[in-house]
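We emphasize that the prediction below concerns an isolated chain of 322 residues; any contacts that depend on oligomerization or on bound cofactors are therefore not represented. The input was used exactly as deposited, without trimming of termini.
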Amino acid sequence: MTLTTLTRDAWLEGRKFSIGASEAAAVCGESPWLSPLELFARKLGKMPDPDLSDVEHVRWGNLLEPAIVAETADRLKLRLLSVAESAERLESPEVEIVGAVEGRQLFLRSHSCPWMVATLDGLAIDEAGALVSIEAKNTSYWQREDWEGGEAPVHYLLQVAHQLAVAAPVARGVLAGLVGGNKLRIVPPIERAAAPIEELRALEADFWRRLQTGEPPRADHTESSLRALKALHPDDNGESVTLPLEFAAMREEIARLEVENREREERIDALKIQIREAIGSATFGVLPDGSGTYSLKTQERGKRVVKASKFRTLRFSKGKSK
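Result of the prediction step, given as a token string:
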């Protein structure tokens, strides 16, 4: 078969109009960085995708990916396939091989669920001839506990499940993480029969339907959803809406929390005044038990110009008593 070579820009463009494996966790509400609502806003073009080209850990992840894939295959006694071999093995009525990203990674699309795409880091075969996909991650030392005991972050496991849903001929998926640059952790292979493929397809189908109809998913309680709401509703239109009944109780809770926060902040301010008084003209104030040190250094701030910006502010005003 003739294999098309895709530039990175062409690959990124193709991902805009589909759901990729790295976005599966966001659809499921399991991503630590991206809410379903922000993914929705990005897919509609209301928010730009972040430019990760100059992000240091992303660059190192791309550089180390082939080494992680090769070492994982070696430790599991798998034979890595070339891109051309992989394309031949994956060719089936269930999957479309869109091309090879920079000639290195296969970019696949599901025939039955054409909104689902996947880019494989590596493909290998085991001693029985079964196909095994390999997903490589380069992660920091501070996340080492997430990879201990054969475990891995759930958002990465969902990424592998999504890849299995797209790459139908693949029997199992392997997730491997290079932790802190010197510890390779390989998660037990995810068998196709054990992967939540049907559940994932259903969730992604519903998300895709929302994109077609413009019906946003519910906002969760994350900064990601707040960013999305600001992008989806940048301006007000002067109209009024009647909020549901439960919002009255919500307002009471906000008022109570605001009082508690104000009292807490006043107490904190009072304590800080006492600390400043005790330090006086000194630079440092050392706690008597040696548990810490306060500093009160003189600092200067230069002039700065604040760029013009537009934003909406949420405020509350009391209504007439009923």
